Amino acid sequence: MQDYFDANRANWDERAELHSTDTTGSYRIGKVLAGGSSLHAIEAEEVGDVAGLDVVHLQCHIGLDTLSLKHLGARSVTGLDFSPKAIAAARDFAARAGTEARFVEASLTAAPEALGETYDLAFVTWGAINWLPDIGAWAKVVAKVLRPGGRLYLLEGHPVMNQMEWEDGRFVATFDRATPEDRPLVFDEAETYTGDARKLTNTRNYEWLHPVADVVSAVIDAGLRLDFLHEHDRLAWRAFPNMIETGEDLFELPEGAVRIPLAFSLGATKRA
Ligand SMILES: C[S@@+](CC[C@H](N)C(=O)[O-])C[C@H]1O[C@@H](n2cnc3c(N)ncnc32)[C@H](O)[C@@H]1O
After folding, report:
1. Which atom of ligand 1 is nearest to the CA of 12?
2. One-character DSSP codes across the chain
3. pTM of the predicted protein model
4. How confident is the model over 67-95, as pLDDT tens digits?
5. CA of 98 to the centre of ligand 1 (A)
6. 108 lines ligand 1 (CB under 6 A)
7. Is the pLDDT reported for residue 18 higher than 90?
């Protein structure tokens, strides 16, 4: 398993360097440095009021959403990621924005010990759990980093959408609905997903699909109460070439296309 994580970390280190110097507009760096928010309309609405909360942002990448949550009124924000380059970029953005934030370099499984404190809100969005082989272990980590009464907000690409590839102008169901821990999906991508033409050298990465039912069950089994479960017709990236931008960096399928769920979100609360 460690080999998969090492390859993914090398891949994410490179992406962090490209994303923190992004010129494609995919990462709203200028907006966050000016004290604004990089949250999309979906999560901005669903996460609710963060004022006064101690927030942990798991798999925070280059920290833009972490800083945004502080700008939206959180009492404190802490971002955690296993990529040293991502954490370095996040700290640099915090300094440039003049925003108080803590950034911790650790793997998700080591989060409770590495963080050493608990939170009112765990924020996890857009491309996090697909890098983790064991969704039950992930949910237990979330439960451990939350205080009693604390809540999880999760927003992800939908696993049904992630089963598809685009071939000859249509979706083709290519990947099984659940990925075995010891047989991850293997991808080799020369470029990152922002449209940046700069090439990656650590191209290989490993991912796992988790059916929505497995995610919900893992959250409940970890001791959280499910507050809501939503499916969405919008996504934060152009997963298929026929998708159209709806504004605010969200994409949807065009009129006439077969509708598949593009994203899902859930809220859950740790029992007191
Ligand atoms: C697509 S990004 C998540 C985007 C993020 N929501 C944001 O605010 O930009 C995925 C992140 O997960 C991190 N990651 C992947 N596997 C991890 C692991 N096992 N432990 C900790 N972080 C991990 C990567 O370093 C990367 O920064």
Report:
1. 25
2. -HHHHHHHHHHHHHHHHHHHT--SSSS-HHHHHTT-----HHHHHHT---TT-EEEEET-TTSHHHHHHHHTT-SEEEEEES-HHHHHHHHHHHHHHT---EEEE--GGGHHHHH-S-EEEEEEESSSGGG-S-HHHHHHHHHHHEEEEEEEEEEEE-HHHHTEEEETTEEEE-S-SS--TTS-EEEE-SS-TT---SPPSS-EEEE----HHHHHHHHHHTTEEEEEEEEES-BSS--STT-EEEETTEEEPPTTSPP---EEEEEEEE--
3. 0.98
4. 999 999 999 999 999 999 999 999 999 99
5. 23
6. yes
7. yes
Does residue 248 register a pLDDT over 90?
no
Question: What's the confidence (pLDDT) of residue 224?
Answer: 98
Q: Where are the domains of the chain?
A: 2-270
| Cβ of 192 less than 6 Å from ligand 1 | no
pLDDT digits (tens, 9 = 90+) for 174-219: 999 999 999 999 999 999 988 899 999 999 999 999 999 999 999 9
Choose which residue among 47, 61, 193 to substitute to test ligand 1 binding: the one with the highest number of ligand atoms within 8 A of its C-beta: 61
Q: Atom 1, ligand 1: which residue's CA is nearest?
A: 127
Residue 83 Cβ contacting ligand 1 at under 6 Å: yes
CA–CA gap between residue 189 and residue 202 (Å, rounded): 9
Q: Residue 104 has what pLDDT?
A: 98
Which residue has the least CA distance to atom 9 on ligand 1? 61
Q: Which CATH superfamily is domain 2-270 in?
A: Vaccinia Virus protein VP39 (3.40.50.150)
**176 phi and psi angles, rounded to 5 deg:** -60, 155
